[in-house]
Design goal:
Layout: H1 2-12, H2 17-33, H3 38-54, H4 61-76, H5 83-100, H6 102-123, H7 128-139, H8 151-164, H9 176-186
């Protein structure tokens, strides 16, 4: 528990990819020591995926995606794991895979990405992560592939959900910087 609290506090202070890498390593060590605990496995999957976004051109991204997939599969086998959060991570992971090769993987992984985010929202409508990620994902799609959801309303809903979320040591927390990063990149 103490290691998790330290790692989550460390994660909330991340300023760059090097900090995120250190944080990811901490969660991976905890996940290796406590493979039956879902939250360290969850964070190991999330941070491997997140690092790909922070360093889009890194030569380590193939290994990061392989590690993320391994942790996601491990997470599926853990009974106490939050299913909404797991579905969200699968959606984020496939979204990340698309970003690595949009021409080849976009058409193939578009539907699985949307399906995972929608599943996560069905499982927990108060989870802000699939709401914001789906809205962000759809903004980059051609209009004929976008859903009928109002993106502005979805972004506002996600922002409200994120603002209600408190830092937690017992539930997923992506930090306040995550919403800011998404909204900043949306405005550019």
């Amino acid at each position: 528990q103490k290691a998790m609290e330290t790692a989550i506090d460390q994660f909330d202070q991340v300023k760059d990819a090097a900090d995120l890498q250190v944080c990811k390593n901490s969660f991976e060590r905890i996940a290796t020591s406590y493979p039956e605990r879902w939250l360290p496995v969850y964070y190991a999957a999330y941070l491997n995926t997140e690092l790909v976004y922070w360093e889009m051109k890194s030569e380590q991204n193939t290994q990061r995606l392989e590690a993320a997939e391994k942790y996601l599969k491990q997470l599926e086998g853990l009974e106490e794991a939050d299913r909404s959060e797991g579905a969200t991570l699968w959606g984020y992971f496939t979204m990340c895979r698309i970003s690595q090769n949009p021409q080849t993987l976009g058409q193939e992984l578009y539907q699985p990405t949307v399906t995972k985010f929608e599943e996560a929202m069905r499982l927990n409508p108060a989870n802000p992560r699939p709401v914001i990620l789906l809205a962000f994902f759809e903004q980059n799609l051609p209009p004929f592939l976008q859903s009928s959801r109002n993106r502005e309303e979805e972004m506002k809903k996600a922002e409200e959900l994120f603002n209600r979320e408190q830092k937690s040591y017992s539930a997923p927390y992506w930090g306040k910087h995550f919403l800011q990063m998404i909204t900043d990149s949306e405005n550019h």
